[in-house]
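User: Quick sanity check before I run a bigger batch. Here is a single chain. Can you write out its predicted 3D structure?
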Amino acid sequence: MKIKFFSRANCPLCVEGLQTLKLVQEDVPFEIDVIDIEQNDRIHEKYMLMIPVVEKDGVVIQYGNLDYATLMEQLGS
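Assistant: Done. Predicted structure follows.
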């Protein structure tokens, strides 16, 4: 399973979110594709007010303040 993690540089909430996602990764096997939204205008426009954003199979499963329980529920099934 491959998970997309949308973020950008100098985003403390993104750093915290990636740490939370990596904690889930210790219990559920998946790859994390970290995407810098500032490298693509379309993605930047779509997610600039939402980051960090976690996407699975093209569907946003959580954004903003990420929490372990929600991510585990969505990724563990």
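DSSP finds three helices and four strands in the chain.

User: Great, the batch can go ahead then.
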